[in-house]
Amino acid sequence: MLPIKDINKIGQLPEKLQQIINKELSNCNEPYLLIDNFTPESINHLLDDIERELQEFPKKIKKKTFNITVELIQNIYLHNPVIPKEIPQEYDKFGFYILCKFPNFATKILTGNFVDSFAKDEIESYLKYIRGLSEDELKKLFFKIFSQAHNIKGGAGLGFLEISRKCNSNFNFKFINYNLESYLFIFSATVTTEKNKIYE
């Protein structure tokens, strides 16, 4: 069973953020929570934990969960433009990661990090666009961008395309207006053998 390893860190966060994280945990079976700056070292520990704890899961589910985790953590590590001043100073790159396990070997991977209004508009528009693509359209767009990625800063959204492909477009996202300068971006992806089933 995955531990809520950072439950003690929740109490150090602003009350508003505590409530948001606790709400996400309440919708989760056997949750694993990591609140971190997501340094290369802590990312490696996280991936080791996931690989160990999902060892009984089918290889396909485990691999997809692992790959989605890598993409989402990279998103936090590379793109975290704004941190509200009330967040403890130890977090220069704040984010949280939650892994849930459900019956029939389903998993849900959820992350949260702060973005500014410009990033919010850009991400929201892009995610709405790729959600409307068929499986074949996703594949074609992925390889089109992949072939050009060396000329485009940040891979032009390749990570979200890869996540959408890995979870059969079973993803949700929301932006919570946290304060005047920032939004909390929460993204979740469900990996399951039951196509099109999303665990809320």
Kindly report the CATH topology of one domain.
Answer: Heat Shock Protein 90
Q: For the CA atoms, what is the radius of gyration? A: 16 Å
The appropriate CATH architecture of one domain is: 2-Layer Sandwich
> What share of the residues lie within helices?
40-55%
Query: How many strands appear in the DSSP assignment?
Result: 5
SSE inventory with pairings:
Elements: H1 7-10, H2 15-26, E1 32-36, H3 40-53, H4 59-78, E2 95-102, E3 106-115, H5 117-131, H6 135-148, H7 158-166, E4 171-177, E5 183-191
Antiparallel strand pairs: 1-2, 2-3, 3-5, 4-5
Helix pairs in contact: 3-4, 4-7, 6-7
Structure, briefly:
The protein has 200 residues and is of the alpha+beta class. The chain is built from seven helices and five strands.
Structure in words:
This protein is globular. With 200 residues, it is of the alpha+beta class. It has helices spanning 7-10, 15-26, 40-53, 59-78, 117-131, 135-148, 158-166; strands at residues 32-36, 95-102, 106-115, 171-177, 183-191. It has a domain at 7-116 and 170-191: Heat Shock Protein 90 (2-Layer Sandwich), CATH 3.30.565. A five-stranded antiparallel β-sheet has the order 1-2-3-5-4, with helices on both faces. Helix 6 runs antiparallel to helix 7. The protein starts with 6 loop residues before the first helix and ends in a 9-residue tail after the last strand. Helices cover 44% and strands 20% of the residues. It is built from seven helices and five strands, in the order ααβααββαααββ.
